[in-house]
Design goal:
globular, single chain, Aspartate Aminotransferase, domain 1, Aspartate Aminotransferase, domain 2, alpha/beta, 13 helices, binds pyridoxal-5'-phosphate, 377 residues
Length: 377
């Protein structure tokens, strides 16, 4: 089996046999010629299947160690497909720290499902939330925005013992740093908008699994609902994935320096980074991840007012939603990415800021944060 970096560059994308092109073609065709009714070269209509999308699906599935992968138009479209495989009345246990859009999808769209939230690092809390109708445990690890860590193998064991499945949102870790399927998870979902794309220029999503029945249902939903990414979007994610390993190494190294600097700053309350030995999930993260990633969050001693001031004072860290790209971003989750969880048990501390630490020179990033923190320090 080729190594991760080799798969990232080559899986699903051999040189084009017709032209020798070393990058996959962007196949814009919506339809494909048939030599006789039902006889074709594997593609009929681009919602159902497209060669550029097929290359992306083969590549990202290979990186996740999955036999099957389906690409979607966004991370939420990928999540929606997985949720549509459940029946009305089915119950899910989700993490008590969750991307706000996932909460909104569950609370406002999939109202036929019932949902409980629990701290997924605490197996007793998951058991307490369990019902006879529980079919799925849904975990982000590290979670957005708090970077809580859950033990994937333990959650998979608990879910499987009770006849349920485990879905892992692997957006923050990426397949380079964490392999949920190898740890026992049944499904991996991604917002490929983030690290897999890696350049803040494409929105996309992905579902990977080794379960042939589930994969067939997700592929059928992809075709029936039609939330597919366009060929150019697929190309951009494929191009991003080629450098995923080197980017994640640098993201992790820069984030570690930022986390260490914040941990020693007087204006900062708590720092959340799974690489810090004081992080409650550090040991599990060290065991199940190959690095700690590029996301750091922290609270300000001065509360929300201080957080808002700092968020508005950085120059190199751009104040913007999203994450996982080459440029560093700062955001205020409770008013921005997680505004939709306000008033729910998943509400985020308004003193919290989230950083997506990019690939700039770490010294410049530290200087920028230092200058911004001086505004409240
Ligand atoms: C952890 C996580 N999962 C899923 C999503 C949704 O992805 P998208 O914005 O591509 O729909 C996001 C978006 O921020 C996210 O952070």
């Amino acid at each position: 089996m080729p190594g991760f970096d080799t798969l990232a560059i080559h899986a699903g994308q051999p040189p084009d046999p017709a032209t020798g092109s070393v990058v996959p073609a962007i196949h814009l065709a919506t339809t494909f010629a048939q030599s006789a009714v039902g006889e074709h070269k594997g593609f009929e209509y681009s919602r159902t299947g497209n060669p550029t999308r097929a290359a992306l699906e083969t590549c990202v599935a290979a990186l996740e160690g999955a036999a099957y992968g389906s690409a979607f138009a966004s991370g939420l479209a990928a999540e929606d497909a997985v949720l549509r495989t459940l029946a009305a009345g089915d119950h899910l246990v989700v993490g008590d720290n969750l991307y706000g859009g996932t909460h909104r999808l569950l609370a406002q769209v999939h109202t036929q499902l019932s949902v409980s939230s629990a701290p997924l690092s605490d197996l007793a809390a998951v058991e307490a939330a369990w019902r006879p109708t529980t079919r799925l445990v849904w975990v982000e690890t590290p979670s957005n925005p708090h970077l809580w860590i859950a033990d994937i193998a333990a959650l998979a064991g608990l879910a499987h013992d009770r006849g349920a499945r485990l879905v892992v949102d692997n957006t923050f870790a990426t397949p380079y740093l964490q392999s949920p399927l190898a740890l026992g998870a049944d499904v991996v979902v991604h917002s490929t908008t983030k690290y897999l794309g890696g350049h803040s220029d494409v929105v996309g999503g992905f579902v990977a699994t080794n379960d042939p029945d589930l994969a067939a249902r997700v592929a059928a939903l992809q075709n029936s609902v039609g939330a597919v990414p366009g060929p150019f979007d697929c190309f951009l994610v494929l191009r991003g994935v080629k450098t995923l390993a080197v980017r994640m190494d640098r993201h992790s190294a820069n984030a570690r320096r930022v986390a260490d600097a914040l941990a020693g700053h007087g204006a900062v309350g708590s720092v959340f980074y799974p690489g810090l030995p004081a992080h409650p999930g550090h040991e599990i993260a060290a065991a199940q991840m190959r690095g700690f990633g590029g996301m750091v969050s922290f609270t300000l001693r001065g509360g929300e007012a201080a957080a808002l001031k700092v968020a508005g004072s950085t120059r190199l860290f751009t104040l913007a939603e999203s994450l996982g790209a080459v440029e560093s971003l700062i955001e205020h989750p409770s008013r921005m990415t997680h505004a939709s969880v306000a008033g729910s048990p998943l509400a985020v501390d308004p003193a919290l800021l989230r950083l997506s630490v990019g690939l700039e020179d770490a010294d410049d990033l530290l200087e920028d944060l230092d200058r911004a923190l001086a505004v409240v320090g």
